[in-house]
Amino acid sequence: MSLLLGVFVLILLGLDSAKASGVVTFSRQPQNQTVTQGNAVRLGCAVMGLSEPDIVWRKDQSKVYSTDQMFLSLGELHWETFYSVRSVQQQDGGRYWCEVESEGQTYSSEPAWITVEGVPHFSLVPQDVAVVPGEAFNLSCAAVGPPDPVEVLWWLGGEQVGGPEPSPSTLHITGVNSSVKFYCEAKNTRGISVSRTGTVHIKVLPSAPEDLQVLSLEENNITVSWSPGFSGYSPLHSCSVQVSGPPWVRIPSPVQVLVPPHRVSVSGLRSHSDYSLRVSCWNQLGPSPHSDWINFTTPESVPMLAPRNLTFDLSDSQLILRWVALDEDELQGKLQAYKVQWSLGSETQEPLLFKDSSAVLSGPGRFLNASVQVSACTSVGCGPWSRPIQILPKPVSLLVPRRHLWSGVLLGLLGASALGLMVAIGAHRRRKDSPFGSAFKPVGSDSLVSFSAARSFNRTEPPEASLDSLGVSAELKAKLQDVLIPERQLSLGHVLGKGEFGSVREAVLKTEDSSQKVAVKVLKNDITTSCDIEQCLKEAAYMKDFSHRNVIQLIGVSLHRRPGQRLPVPMVILPFMKHGDLHTFLLLSRLGENPFNLELQTLVCFMLDVARGMEYLSNKNIIHRDLAARNCMLDEDLRVCVADFGLSKRIYSGDYYRQGSVSKLPVKWIALESLSDNLYTSQSDVWAFGVTMWEVMTRGQTPYPGVENSEIYEYLIKGERLKRPPDCRPDM
Ligand SMILES: *[C@@H]1O[C@H](CO)[C@@H](O)[C@H](O)[C@H]1NC(C)=O
Ligand SMILES: *[C@@H]1O[C@H](CO)[C@@H](O)[C@H](O)[C@H]1NC(C)=O
Ligand SMILES: *[C@@H]1O[C@H](CO)[C@@H](O)[C@H](O)[C@H]1NC(C)=O
Ligand SMILES: *[C@@H]1O[C@H](CO)[C@@H](O)[C@H](O)[C@H]1NC(C)=O
Ligand SMILES: *[C@@H]1O[C@H](CO)[C@@H](O)[C@H](O)[C@H]1NC(C)=O
Ligand SMILES: *[C@@H]1O[C@H](CO)[C@@H](O)[C@H](O)[C@H]1NC(C)=O
Ligand SMILES: *[C@@H]1O[C@H](CO)[C@@H](O)[C@H](O)[C@H]1NC(C)=O
C-alpha cells in the first residue's frame, strides 16, 4: 500500500526534484534482448544515490516512453523503473539505455539492444521499370532479418527465375518484348516475405499533345501552350511546333523546345495573316502524333512603308495626285485609306482621305507651291509619310479657281474628320464616287461632321458669343467655365417639339474625344434680356451639380449668337431621351398607330419616379413651377426624369405672363393660390404633382375635361377639384 502511494505521489509531483547525495550509480543495467515479433519485451534500470530521480529511456538518441512506466522505490535513494513493449515490431529493435540528470549532469546506463526476430523485412523494394523491347535491364531486391541470413527468390511473369540468392539481389534481364509483372520473395528461418508486385513497362511513342491554346498573339509572334499527352513510359524531353500559313507568307521553320514548360513563342510571323499551328512531343523513342491544328490570324499593324512615286499633274481645272499602292507585304494590314496632307508655308491643312492610289482635287490654285505628302492607313493606324513633293505650276497661265472648289475640299475634310468612325465600320461601305474624284463621304454623314467641317473654312463668321461680350462678373465667369459649352461643339438637328417658350431640337454635342446625342432647348428671343441671361447662367451653374436618377441632368448651356443682335440666345443642353416626354408616351399608348398596354404597375412606377425627382428638387430648394406630364422625360429604360425645372422661373414670375394672354399659361396645373396670388412654393408643386398623377392614370387625358381654361379659376374657387378617373380604382 505505502509503496503504491509513494509511486502516485511521485508521479503527481512531477519527479522534478531529484537530489544527489553522494555518487550516482546504476544498480541495474538494461540487458540485450532478442524476441520474436509480436512478443513482449521489458528493459529494467535502477538508480542509487538520488532522492527522487527522473529516469528517462533513450533509443538511438531520442527519448522514448512506455505508457506504463512506473518508478518503484527499492529503499532510501534507490529507485527502479522499466521500459516495456507488449507486442514488439521490427521498428522497436535498436539500442536503448536509461538516463538520469542531477545538478546539471547526465548519468547514462550501459546500452542494451532489443533484437526483433521475424520474417525478412524489405530494405529495397523492387521498383517499376520502363524499357524498350529487347533492352537489358536489372531488377533489385534487398531484405534483412533478424534473423539473418536472408535469401531472395525472383518471380517474373508468374514464373520463378533462377534459384535463391543471398540478399541483396540483382536480377539481370536481357530483354522482354511485352509488359510483365514481377516480385521477389525473401526467406529466413522465421518465414517468407513477399515484396510488392512491380511492372516492367514497355516504352512506346508518346500520345499527341492536347488543349493547344493561344496565350498571346501579337503582330509578328504567337505564344501557345498545351498539355502533354501520355508520355509512353519515357519522359518527354522536347516538343516541336509546326506552323503553316498561306503560300505567299514566309513560314517559320519548326521550333524545337525543351519541355517542361509546355509553352513556346514563335516569331517571324507576318501581321494580318492566317496561320495554323500544331505540336508534337518527343520521348526517347521518337515523336508523338501531332496535336490538332489551331488556326489564328495575326493582328494588323501599321504600314511599314510610305506609298512611293508620288507625282502630280496640275491643270487649269484640277490637281491630280498619283502614287504607287503598297503591296500586301508592306501594308501589313487591310488598307483603309490613303491620307494626303498638304501644307502651304508653315500651315498644315487637315488631311484628306482617298480610297484609291490617286486623288483628283478641284481648285488647283490653292495648291500652288503647296507641299504634299501621302501615307497609307490600316485600321491600326497610318504608316510613314512619303517624301513631300512641291506643287509647282506648269509654265502656262492659270485660271482663277472656280467657285465649287470649296465643296471638293469639304468632302475631303468630311472624310478626314470621320476617319475614326470609318475605320471602325469597315471599308466596304465607304466608297463613294464624287465629281471630285474618290474622296469619300463619312458613313452616316451626320450634321455634326458637316458642321465642324464647314466651320473650318468659314473664317469670316462672327466671333463666338463669349462671356466677355455679356459683361458677366468674373466670379460667375469662373463658375460657368464647365457649364458653358461653345456653340461650335453643337450641331443642331431637327425640331423635337415646340412650346410657348421656345423649341427643343435634337442635336449632337461633340467634345474632343466623344460625341453625344443631346436635346437642346432654344429659348425664344423675346423672353431674354441681358438680366435673364445672367440669371439663366447662374441657375445653370447651380443645377449642373444636380444628380438624381429621376431628375434630368443638365449637360450645359450654350449661347447662340444671332447676327445683328447684341445679345445671344441661351440654349439649354440636356440628355437626349429616347422615349420623349411622358405625356406623348401616354397618348401613344392609347391613340398611337400601335397602341400598347401600360400596366397599372408601370403607371405607379412613373408616379414614383416623378415623386422621387420632385423630392430631390425640393430638398435642393428648387421650385419647379411647371410640373406636368409633358415636362417629364422617359429614357430608354422607361425611367421618368423630371425636366424643365427652375430655368423657366422668370417666365412664370412677374410681368411676363401678365403682358401675354393668360390662356397661354398651363392653368390646369397651377395651384389655386398661384393663380390668385402668383405665389409659387413647394406646395404648389405638390398640386401640380397631383394633376400629373391624374394625367398618368388617364393615360394622357387633359385634366378637367369639359372645363375651359378660362373657367378653371371659378371652378376651383367653388370648391370643385379633379374627379377620380372612371377606370381608377378607389384605393389608387
Ligand atoms: C549486446 O548486443 C550487442 C550487439 O548485438 C553487442 O555488441 C554487445 O556485446 C551485447 N552485449 C552483451 C552484454 O551481450
Ligand atoms: C546491371 O548490373 C550490372 C552489374 O551489376 C551492370 O554491369 C550493368 O550495367 C547493369 N545493367 C543495367 C542496364 O543497368
Ligand atoms: C523479342 O522479339 C524479337 C523479334 O520480334 C525476337 O527476336 C526476340 O527474341 C524476342 N525476345 C524475347 C525476350 O522474347
Ligand atoms: C512579340 O511581338 C511584340 C510586338 O510585335 C514584341 O513586343 C514582343 O517582344 C514579341 N515577343 C516575343 C516573345 O518575341
Ligand atoms: C483551320 O482551318 C482549316 C482550313 O484552313 C479548317 O479546315 C479547319 O477546320 C480549321 N480548324 C479549326 C479548329 O478551326
Ligand atoms: C518609281 O520611280 C522609279 C524612278 O523614279 C522607277 O524606277 C520605278 O519603276 C517607279 N515605280 C513604279 C512602281 O512605278
Ligand atoms: C510660288 O512661289 C514662287 C517663288 O518660289 C512665287 O513667285 C509665287 O508667287 C508663289 N505662288 C503662290 C501662289 O504662292
CATH topology of the largest domain: Transferase(Phosphotransferase), domain 1
The fourth-level CATH homologous superfamily of the largest domain is Transferase(Phosphotransferase) domain 1
Query: What integer value in Å does the Rg equal?
Result: 50 Å
Approximate helicity band? 10-25%
Looking at the overall shape, the CATH architecture of the largest domain is Orthogonal Bundle
Would you kindly provide a written description of the structure presented here, covering whatever features stand out?
By secondary structure, this protein is of the alpha+beta class. It has six domains: 17-117, Immunoglobulin-like (Sandwich), CATH 2.60.40; 121-202, Immunoglobulins (Immunoglobulin-like, Sandwich), CATH 2.60.40.10; 210-297, Immunoglobulins (Immunoglobulin-like, Sandwich), CATH 2.60.40.10; 308-390, Immunoglobulins (Immunoglobulin-like), CATH 2.60.40; 477-575, Phosphorylase Kinase, domain 1; 582-717, Transferase(Phosphotransferase), domain 1 (Orthogonal Bundle), CATH 1.10.510.10. Helix content is 19%, strand content 34%. Helix 3 packs across helix 5 and helix 10 (600-619) packs antiparallel against helix 14. Residues 1-20, 396-465 and 650-663 have low confidence and may be disordered. It binds 2-acetamido-2-deoxy-beta-D-glucopyranose (7 copies). This is Tyrosine-protein kinase receptor TYRO3.
Question: How would you describe this structure in keywords?
Answer:
42 strands; alpha+beta; nucleotide-binding; 6-stranded mixed beta sheet; Immunoglobulin-like; 15 helices; 34% strand; transferase; 732 residues; transmembrane receptor protein tyrosine kinase activity; magnesium; binds 2-acetamido-2-deoxy-beta-D-glucopyranose
